[in-house]
């Protein structure tokens, strides 16, 4: 079951391929959706018909990535249900461009929690996504290998487009919808630096749907005019032959996306022997698997230099291509199909199959101390305040971001740091050095949403805190450090949501803030919970 079945969409392609695998293994398999493209109308059944067609022996794979409004339908359907989580784009990545999409992303995360009681288990296509399911309290979580139909990439290139692009230019390619989360504007900035500093005879190809009259599409065209590089082509939605021509003529593939649950175009570029340069956000490093070039810098000149070195250093280029070929070989059609089959059968064979249960929100402490920089910036005032609060509030835990290079995990649990109980979560983007703002974290934010405890946001200007302001309601407290805040809009949002429960940090007297918080939290929980 999907919300919409679309041709060329990564989720639609995955669903159709899974169906073909299931049928090849002797299962009856149908796809249900609320809407679909005309090209898919013969492959899909209306979602509303599923409850009456399902039996107690049916197994429903619920593919979740966006607002669906399908939870009531799923809840009343007979048979077993398993969640397949493709990840949800953080709402903050649409803010300023598409309020409707931002609200739908927030609703989708509410639905992620609402689905939990109705499914027997859950899959994700990356450990990054699986960690969020564990944070949401799903009792059984497993990583499902992303099954790619590599044969679909073997379409011969369109000859006319190929002739146009094969003119001696270095072609930098990006494939995907032109939406804010993909940060196509950063692709434009990197390309501009590359063309001006390293390769004047270059072209940028952007293949994917772009809404020219929408806020983000208009912004991209305006930015293109402002930056002034030559030979930028917005190709829009392309067919299979045109896409093959783009890859066949590409010198390098560039992605600056801030969020990927699993980046199929990255692997498609590897399969087509195009070297990949990608910003290491979310599940991108996991998808790359050590191949290609993953950058943790968003600076256009830094990334442009990588593109230039790839072009000029033939030894490095061959090393990159060799690593990419090895990555693709590890994801061979037969090997992955076998892994998918074994993983699914482990769940379908018995109700008690699957990994051990993870802690549920009901087991969470009474107070959540949200301090994203606790581990990466241990000497910062907010980290010191978190340690003091944890000392005084024994039924609290500290929620922090993992450091750079630490991999996501399926079984969340505390680590002891200087006597404090710290739960670590993977950031959506790499954590940079201070004073760079701390990024958000889908899994940390979901853990707080799933918890019923009081919440203290230590540093209300962080991405995590800003994402949680509307979710914590009256159970939320916040601490603002005026010495580090540069975004007045973030301050106004914190004041709006927290009111009198937003406190100002006095760096010279951390105890004063700690005393106020302990008093405020203890007055509603009982003085026996506070230790002075």
Automatic annotation (TrEMBL):
Keyword terms, alphabetized: Transferase
Single biological process term from Gene Ontology: lipopolysaccharide biosynthetic process
One of the record's GO molecular function terms: glycosyltransferase activity
InterPro entries registered for this protein in UniProt: Glyco_trans_1
Transmembrane feature ranges: none
Coiled coil: none
Domain Glycosyl transferase family residues, every copy: 172-320
PANTHER family, sorted: GLYCOSYLTRANSFERASE WBBK-RELATED (PTHR46401:SF2)
This protein's name: Glycosyltransferase
Lineage: Bacteria, Pseudomonadati, Myxococcota, Myxococcia, Myxococcales
């Amino acid at each position: 079951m999907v919300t919409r079945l679309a041709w060329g969409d990564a989720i639609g392609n995955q669903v159709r391929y899974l169906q073909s695998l299931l049928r090849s293994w002797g299962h009856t398999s149908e796809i249900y959706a609320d809407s679909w493209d005309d090209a898919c109308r013969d492959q899909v059944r209306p979602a509303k018909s599923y409850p009456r067609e399902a039996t107690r022996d049916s197994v429903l794979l619920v593919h979740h990535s966006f607002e669906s409004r399908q939870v009531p339908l799923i809840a009343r359907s007979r048979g077993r249900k398993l969640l397949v989580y493709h990840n949800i784009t953080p709402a903050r990545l649409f803010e300023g461009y598409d309020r409707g999409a931002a609200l739908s992303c927030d609703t989708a995360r509410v639905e992620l929690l609402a689905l939990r009681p109705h499914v027997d288990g859950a899959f994700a296509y990356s450990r990054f996504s699986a960690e969020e399911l564990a944070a949401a309290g799903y009792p059984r979580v497993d990583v499902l290998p992303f099954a790619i139909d590599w044969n679909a990439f073997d379409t011969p290139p369109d000859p006319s487009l190929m002739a146009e692009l094969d003119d001696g230019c270095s072609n930098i390619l990006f494939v995907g919808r032109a939406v804010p989360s993909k940060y196509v504007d950063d692709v434009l900035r990197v390309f501009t630096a590359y063309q001006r500093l390293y390769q004047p005879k270059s072209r940028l190809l952007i293949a994917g749907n772009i809404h020219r009259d929408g806020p983000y599409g208009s912004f991209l065209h305006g930015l293109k005019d402002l930056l002034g590089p030559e030979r930028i082509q917005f190709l829009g939605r392309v067919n299979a032959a045109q896409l093959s021509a783009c890859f066949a003529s590409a010198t390098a593939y560039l992605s600056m996306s801030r969020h990927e649950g699993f980046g199929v175009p990255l692997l498609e570029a590897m399969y087509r022997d195009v070297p990949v340069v990608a910003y290491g956000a979310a599940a991108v490093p996991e998808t790359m698997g050590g191949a290609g070039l993953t950058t943790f810098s968003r600076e256009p000149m830094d990334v442009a230099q990588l593109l230039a070195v790839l072009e000029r250093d033939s030894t490095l280029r061959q090393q990159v291509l060799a690593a990419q070929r090895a990555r693709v070989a590890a994801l061979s059609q037969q090997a992955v199909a076998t892994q998918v089959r074994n993983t699914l059968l482990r769940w379908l064979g018995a109700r008690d199959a699957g990994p051990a249960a993870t802690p549920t929100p009901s087991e969470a402490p009474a107070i959540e101390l949200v301090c994203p920089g606790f581990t990466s910036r241990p000497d910062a005032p907010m980290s010191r305040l978190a340690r003091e609060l944890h000392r005084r509030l024994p039924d609290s835990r500290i929620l922090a971001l993992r450091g750079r290079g630490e991999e996501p995990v399926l079984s969340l649990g505390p680590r002891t740091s200087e006597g404090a109980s710290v739960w670590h979560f993977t950031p959506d983007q790499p954590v940079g050095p201070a004073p760079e703002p701390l990024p958000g974290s889908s899994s940390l934010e979901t853990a707080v949403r799933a918890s019923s405890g009081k919440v203290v946001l230590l540093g209300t200007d962080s991405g995590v805190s800003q994402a949680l302001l509307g979710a914590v309601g009256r159970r939320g407290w916040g601490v603002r450090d005026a010495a580090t805040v540069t975004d007045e809009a973030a301050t106004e949002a914190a004041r709006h949501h927290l009111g009198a429960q937003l406190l100002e940090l006095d760096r010279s007297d951390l105890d004063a803030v700690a005393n106020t918080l302990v008093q405020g939290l203890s007055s509603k929980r009982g003085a026996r919970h506070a230790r002075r």
